[in-house]
Every structure is written in C-alpha cells, then in structure tokens.
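User: Predict the structure for this protein chain, please.
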Amino acid sequence: MIFLKTSLSTVSQARLWGKASVANNNLEQLIEFYKLMLKIRLFEEKIDWLFSRGMLGGTSHMCIGQEAVAVGISANLNQDDYVISSHRGHGHLIAKGGEIRKIFAELMGKIDGYCYGKGGTQHLCAKEIGFYGTNGIVGGGIPVATGIALSIKLRKTRQVAVVFFGDGATNQGTFHESLNIASIWNLPILFVCENNLYGMSAPVGKMTNIDDLAQRADAYNIKNYIVDGMDVSGVFDVSNEAISYIRDRQQPCFIEAKTYRHCGHSKSDPKVYRTKDEEKCWLEKDCIGSLKKRLAVAGFDVEKMDKIKGDIEREVGDALKFSEKSEFTPQHFALEGVYKDG
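Assistant: Here is the predicted structure, written as structure tokens:
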C-alpha cells in the first residue's frame, strides 16, 4: 500500500497503487524485478555463509528483506544518474548495475574488487555506473549526495541524485542541513529513507516522536511520499512520479519506504530486541515471497520461477569462484588511488 503525503488527484493515487502493475499485465517488468531482488537476496545469503565460516573479515550489513526498495527505485534511473548509499548498500549497488563478482572480490580484499579490495563493504564505489559509494557513517552519504545534486544543477543536466539512508540517519544534523540546502537551492535530489523500524537495536518509536519520518520533509517544504517498501511495484510507481517531478521541476523529493530487515543489524547481531512473532509477521509480508505469489496469480509458471532461482544460484556461485581466484591486493598498492592531483 502507498500512502501519499502530498495532494494528488484520485486518478494519480489509483495509478500509484502497487497492484496496478499486475492489473496492467506488465508481467515482463515484474519478472525482471523478481530476478533482480532474488539476485540481491541470494548474493547476501552467500555473504552471510562466508562470514559464518570465517572466510570474510570485518563486518557486513545485509539488506535482506529490503530488496524491493533498491530495485523499485533504481528501475526508474538512467545510467548517468547518481546513487549514494548507506552502510547497508550491496542491494543498491546491484540494482544500479553492479557486478556481483566484483563485489565479492572487494569484500575479500582482492585486486579485482570495485576499489581494488581496499574499500570493503562500507566503502564500495563504482563511479563508472554512477554509484558514488556506500558509507560507514550513519547519514554520511546525505551531504555527499546533496553536493552531487548541486553539481548537476550547475552543469544544467537532467540527471538526478538519489541517496538511500536508514531511519536512524534522520536524527543526524547533516540530514536536516542537507534537506534545508536542497530545498532553498532547488536541487535535483531524491532522499530515500528506508525505515526498517530499527536503528541498530533501537526501535524507531523510541528514537523519534512522530508517526511518519516523511513528516520531517514537510518542515523543509519538500514534496514527500510514504510507500509500502515490501511492494516493489508500489515503490516503482511512486518513485517514477517523484523522479519525473525532480527532473521536470528541478526540486527535491523525499520518499519514506516502510520496510523491514529480516536479518540483524550486522553479521553478529542475535536480534534479541525483537520477538519471533514480529519476525514471523514480517516474513509473511516478504517482498520476494509476495511477488512470487503475485506472479503465480498472474499466470507465470512456478517451474519457470524455480529455473530463475537455479540460474541465479549458478551466477552467484560463478561470481564467488571468480573472486576466489582473484589475487589479494599487493601491499605496495595501499596508497594507489588515495590522493588525486590537481
């Protein structure tokens, strides 16, 4: 379900309703959404598997459960648009066109990684596809994206900057400063809050005394929406409207996607701060499971969906083998790419 915060006509609200895509027989698009969401899910499950066997160092933050937000929004972006992510950014990168073999290699510290194995999960960057980084600082990507949006305005292109962040980031000072600047300077930026109900282990209701975080955009006179983040077609439709608005009006927009991470905050989180009943409830709303059921209702063969899953599992396996064969980044490479002259 989508909740629209700004005034739109009844016709517009009907068009934004998530199930409209099925009603319009846009089956091919939904299948592509399904493939990409499943690819993100299986990739991250493999990452979790590698961590559990001590094959990866450091930590990692999975977006398992939140795939619909990344896929639904990125489907509306052009290749030269910009995406800036949070610490939970594997899905955003894959949805923007990132190669999973290069992400595997990056996490393993290999030379074939996106940042030559030096960035790791929280410093993934792929400028060639407009992905300007995951970020280990809560809300750290928001001012970076605002600066990129300013560069778009100065260059007078029709590009858009999209920044993903969690609910906890909306309590950061840089969040408010960035929304204020974006509003008064009319910057072409889409702020996307993935409200997964918890900032680490803190429930959003104990950290913020408002029902909807999108209300904060009202304070800066920024057009804003609330969308069911478990419904990929709903996310696609509402972000299509928001991004078109940004391109045409050169003004910022804000989307709050209500979602849920099935996993813990990071790989070592036992999730003791929430109940099994709550987890079960959200699993029943799972974005991939729900879409699979909708595809079946729309007439897509279940056996074909099983084949899709098998193909993606092989793709993930091949990508892992590629990264395992890649060489560890040489020690003398440590300072390469750290500074830029001029």
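The mean pLDDT is 91.
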